[in-house]
Design brief:
By secondary structure, the chain is an alpha+beta fold. Helices cover 11% and strands 14% of the residues. It has one helix at 26-30, and strands at 15-17, 23-25.
């Protein structure tokens, strides 16, 4: 597990590409509201 990810602590403010390929931070995406991240492993 990455050392910045700690159970019970705020998630790091990552910058990831959106569906258009534009970079967006998690804080911009959440816009002050609670946010749930779900990671899936495998192929669709």
């Amino acid at each position: 597990m990455h050392p910045d990810i700690i159970v019970g602590k705020p998630f790091p403010d990552l910058t990831l590409p959106d569906h258009r390929g534009e970079l967006i931070t998690l804080s911009e995406l959440a816009n002050g509201f609670p946010l749930i991240l779900s990671f899936y492993r495998g192929y669709w």
